[in-house]
């Protein structure tokens, strides 16, 4: 049996506030960088509204297509938080109070009222595994390969550390950047040649505008540092030949 | 015949840099706010890699499902810019030099070399309509209901103004926010009741943390201001009863 070496994830952002433009998603970047370090590549992101059937259908598609699915948003106490009930339906599981989560939140709210909204946050698919929340008490959860996290970026960030041992990945995906004082159209032909000669390195080219000056960042990504090194030396060769200024590397 | 009143769009973000976490997408928010003002609601966003077949399949799915599709990214001069050729294949159209775009860019680069990379930016689906670019010359384009814009946020922003007359929408989607000094779990039950009583207003509840204090923003969205007003007065009623401080409205 060939050992699996490539692990792919999808991120599913559940929230009308992203689709309306009110809020800019930052969780994708947080999750992607963290997953890359664990050897998991994010290959698709979807943003969908707070509509139960859409959540169910999308989760069921993505969890079949990818090794991991990470959802963000919709696990709070209000009427528009319907992720936990939708995930239960997606898996055909009961949506019920998780006794461990109930104990955690009862303790968390011991000096105030453990009201209906707060108790709602203990309801999730039966036998779901908890993802502990060191920031605001209410845990996330996972069922099989679907991990459900909150939408608030600071809370999400505080929770993913505890998940590290639950994620099996491959080699970490390494990235190296070289930033040049040039424009893309000056280096496009050289870069194309280098990409063709280095198929195992994903080369990206991204224009930037900083301190009043244009530049281009070339990003090389691979699980293999020596392949990045070869690619990098080829880039430095043409940069040198064309007398392009290196801004940062 | 009933006049169409609801117009839906999808945004397709094409770019490995978003999936790797290197870059945070901000174009979704720009496009969504602009589209709302034209009476078009964004109901799905997807982020996909720079892979031709993935772009073709996703565009063909989305352009059938929605009134409008907006793509961002992949129309520059480098090897990883494959949006124009992929869209050509999605529509079964020739990928060829657009003579108007060629003339524009030849003029734009008259004081430097109009090289291969720059000429690549004039290639697009045959008979595509141009989207002019007041910032950096190279135009975007649209074919039927698929509008292709660049990934660089400042350039994208400068281009959408010129598209206004090409987008037919419904009534603008209005939004009103009231921010409270409370936590979601304190108001969840009242909000659920108000949402049930006001089905035509989409009510969202979003916690925030500002200047060291927690709060919740309640966002009401509808095409109908008077329905928002009714909803708003019901919210103010329970806010008043519960003696919750209003931070902003």
Characterization of this structure:
The structure is a homodimer of 249-residue chains. Chain A has 249 residues and is α/β, with parallel strands linked by helices. The model of chain A has no long low-confidence stretch (mean pLDDT 95). In chain A, helix 2 (27-37) packs parallel to helix 7, helix 3 (52-65) crosses helix 4 and helix 8 packs across helix 9 (225-241). Chain A folds into 2 domains: 7-166, Molybdenum Cofactor Biosythetic Enzyme, Chain A (3-Layer(aba) Sandwich); 174-248, Alpha-Beta Plaits (2-Layer Sandwich). Chain A starts with 6 loop residues before the first strand and ends with a strand. Helix content of chain A is 37%, strand content 30%. In chain A, strand 10 and strand 11 (213-222) form a beta hairpin. In chain A, the strands form 3 sheets. In chain A, strands 2-1-3-8-7-6 form a 6-stranded mixed β-sheet, with helices on both faces. Chain A contains 9 helices and 12 strands. Chains A and B meet through helix 1, helix 2, strand 2, helix 6 and helix 8 of A and helix 1, helix 2, strand 2, helix 6 and helix 8 of B.
